[in-house]
């Protein structure tokens, strides 16, 4: 099951939750490179036009979102409550 959009309570206060969609083609990219080795920092975030700084795997590990630093900080508590895992640009686990 693919998650199409983030919905509150993911920590988006004045930002539109509808602007964060699952990264298109992320499954194909993960199959080619390997989920842990994918260099997502050269891509744009799913929430805005900024560079991706965090890769977030939603509960279940099948759906991925790319966040810029600002939107990750805004959504962090909601992502934590939803049991998401987040990795920084060096593939270090920063949220579990």
What would you call the structural class? alpha+beta
Q: What is the distance, rounded to the nearest whole angstrom, between the alpha carbons of the first and last residues?
A: 21 Å
Spatially, the strands of the biggest sheet line up as 2-1-3-4
Stretches where pLDDT falls below 50 for ≥5 residues?
Answer: 1-19, 21-37
> Strand-and-helix sequence, N→C?
HEEHEE
Globally, the shape reads globular
Strand content: 5-15%
Calculate the mean pLDDT score and round it.
74
DSSP summary, beta strand count: 4
Task: Tell me the major beta sheet.
Answer: 4 strands, antiparallel
Helix content: 10-25%
Number of domains: 1
Radius of gyration, whole Å: 12 Å
Count the helices. How many?
A: 2
List keywords for this structure.
96 residues, alpha+beta, four-stranded antiparallel beta sheet
């Amino acid at each position: 099951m693919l998650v199409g959009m983030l919905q509150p309570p993911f920590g988006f206060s004045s930002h539109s939750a509808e602007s964060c969609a699952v990264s298109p083609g992320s499954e194909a990219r993960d199959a080619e490179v390997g989920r842990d080795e994918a260099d997502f920092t050269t891509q744009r975030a799913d929430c805005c036009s900024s560079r991706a700084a965090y890769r977030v795997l939603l509960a279940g590990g099948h759906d991925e979102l790319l966040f810029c630093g600002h939107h990750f900080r805004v959504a962090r508590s909601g992502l934590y409550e939803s049991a998401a895992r987040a990795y920084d640009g060096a593939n270090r686990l920063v949220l579990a």
